[in-house]
Q: What sequence folds into this?
């Protein structure tokens, strides 16, 4: 077998230069055709690409005498000479097509071209068949030689790689364009941040929400974009977070009331490298305004209801103290008024708790105070409740040693009352015990309310502080409540700069704590 000549090499080198000059698939296919005909001095060349979905070969472009007219033809793999090459992944030289039974002649039937000779080679890239390239009719009429075949094969392997690259490039560009369109057309604001928190992409909607010209903000820090807003929690904290996602609320500092909700989603490369964050921004002003109205309304009516209720609940027992002046019916009526008045009063208390938990700001009037007297006051107020439930609360000596800390006394009493009441009401035993202990550490006082109740399952411990959360009835033999007690405890303690928590073992009791900074 004779190897490629210097001329052949030069031809291939030139072909290679041409093939690598474009990533445009259509242009590339045209180059492949032109060059294919040149390398073997053929009258025409055609290229058939494989449609993997239907297992068919189709003419994408045809050149030379065949012109563009063969375009609509599709051949099944296995059909015709090109089909045979595709099926066997082997080259083929046929110097008289009429004598070859595999010849289908369909290409000629749709054009004025008469094929006499065919040199067909499979196009294979990365082991995958992508099509077949054919040279038709040697220009000088002589048969295609084995030398022609060799150079055509060498050319075909270059062409296959170039076509595959152009296709991949087109695919990537297509995906990029799709993404860019989705990003640009999103009705929500979208901002892509790099790991340093710099804006890499920002769509029109986000530009409008932040009141910034998108092109001017590219490459700048998110904090610059959100300059005119107050952020809760702070943006710097959110960017440095551990969790994959987080939500931040921004409130415009000046002008008309304007709230934005920003959902951060961390983006990570497949090798785990951080790519930054995708930020979806939404105008939530209307929602916040409605919530505020609802809260204010609730807070207003619950406080307004409280005054007449205090009167009702106060007078009914007073009247009952004079049974001699009342007939049986009146006694019964007053007893009902008293009971229902107390019930209504507890409902209103719940409403007040709810509006407190919901309120944006909790106004505290803090003064340094020791805890012990507050605890004593709470226990005194709860005396009949505790006795009625056969509950004994023991205050440890350590409580007395707690130093005074800045606190809003009314609110802290509420915290203590809630924790002690829970320790009693969720304990189904006949007699109940509660221990209150104190400790000073890490610049805070820490107060613990421990009980000998049923305990709390580990998976519930993280949820019980959420508002409206109650563990199902069957577990605690549910006592009436609204699932607001602990939410309120947490809200009040956090407003003081403290923390809350629980440790518990099923069957052994629960231990709730809260801290208050010194
Ligand atoms: P509520 O206002 O209805 O009392 P809380 O927010 O105070 O609700 O408590 C939430 C849930 O946590 C309760 O439904 C209860 O199941 C559980 N829980 C709270 N305190 C205790 C405790 N000391 N022992 C066992 N379960 C408790």
A:
């Amino acid at each position: 077998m004779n190897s490629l000549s210097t001329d052949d090499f030069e031809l291939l080198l030139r072909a290679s230069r041409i093939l690598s000059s474009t990533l445009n698939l259509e242009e590339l296919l045209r180059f492949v055709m032109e060059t294919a005909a040149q390398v073997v001095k053929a009258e025409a060349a055609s290229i058939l690409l494989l449609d993997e979905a239907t297992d068919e070969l189709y003419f994408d472009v045809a050149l030379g005498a065949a012109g563009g007219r063969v375009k609509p033809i599709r051949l099944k793999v296995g059909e015709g000479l090109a089909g045979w090459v595709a099926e066997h992944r082997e080259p083929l030289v046929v110097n008289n097509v009429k004598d070859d039974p595999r010849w289908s002649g369909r290409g000629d039937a749709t054009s004025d071209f008469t094929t006499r000779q065919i040199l067909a080679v499979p196009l294979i890239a990365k082991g995958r068949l992508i099509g077949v390239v054919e040279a038709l009719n040697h220009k000088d009429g002589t048969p295609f030689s084995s030398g022609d075949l060799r150079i055509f094969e060498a050319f075909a392997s270059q062409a296959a790689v170039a076509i595959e690259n152009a296709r991949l490039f087109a695919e990537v560009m297509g995906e990029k364009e799709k993404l860019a369109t989705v990003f640009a057309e999103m009705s929500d604001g979208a901002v892509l941040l790099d790991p340093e928190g710099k804006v890499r992409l920002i769509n029109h909607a986000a530009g409008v929400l932040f009141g910034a010209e998108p092109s001017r903000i590219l490459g700048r820090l998110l904090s610059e974009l959100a300059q005119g807003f107050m952020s809760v929690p702070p943006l710097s904290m959110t960017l440095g977070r551990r969790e994959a996602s987080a939500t931040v609320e921004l409130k415009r500092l000046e002008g008309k009331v304007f709230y934005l909700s920003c959902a951060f989603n961390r983006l990570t490369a497949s090798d785990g490298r951080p790519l930054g964050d995708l930020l979806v921004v939404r105008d939530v002003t209307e929602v916040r305004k409605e919530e505020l109205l609802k809260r204010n309304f609730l807070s207003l009516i619950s406080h307004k209801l409280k005054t007449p209720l205090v009167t009702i609940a106060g007078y009914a027992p007073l009247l009952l103290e004079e049974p001699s002046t009342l007939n049986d019916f009146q006694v019964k009526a007053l007893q009902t008024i008293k009971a229902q008045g107390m019930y209504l009063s507890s409902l209103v208390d719940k409403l007040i708790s709810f509006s407190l938990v919901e309120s944006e700001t909790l106004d505290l009037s803090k003064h340094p105070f020791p805890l012990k007297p507050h605890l004593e006051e709470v226990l005194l107020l709860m005396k009949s409740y505790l006795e009625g439930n056969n509950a004994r609360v023991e205050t440890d000596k350590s409580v007395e040693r707690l130093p005074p800390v800045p606190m809003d006394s009314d609110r802290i009493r509420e915290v203590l009352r809630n924790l002690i009441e829970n320790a009693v009401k969720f304990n189904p035993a006949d007699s109940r015990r509660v221990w209150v202990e104190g400790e000073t550490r890490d610049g805070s006082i820490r107060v613990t309310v421990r009980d000998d109740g049923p305990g709390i399952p580990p998976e519930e411990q993280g949820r019980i502080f959420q508002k409206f959360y109650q563990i199902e009835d069957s577990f605690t033999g549910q006592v009436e409540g609204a699932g607001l007690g602990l939410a309120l405890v947490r809200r009040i303690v956090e407003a003081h700069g403290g923390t809350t928590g629980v440790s518990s073992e099923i069957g052994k009791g629960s231990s709730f704590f809260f801290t208050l900074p010194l």
Q: What stands out?
A: DSSP finds 18 helices and 19 strands in the chain.
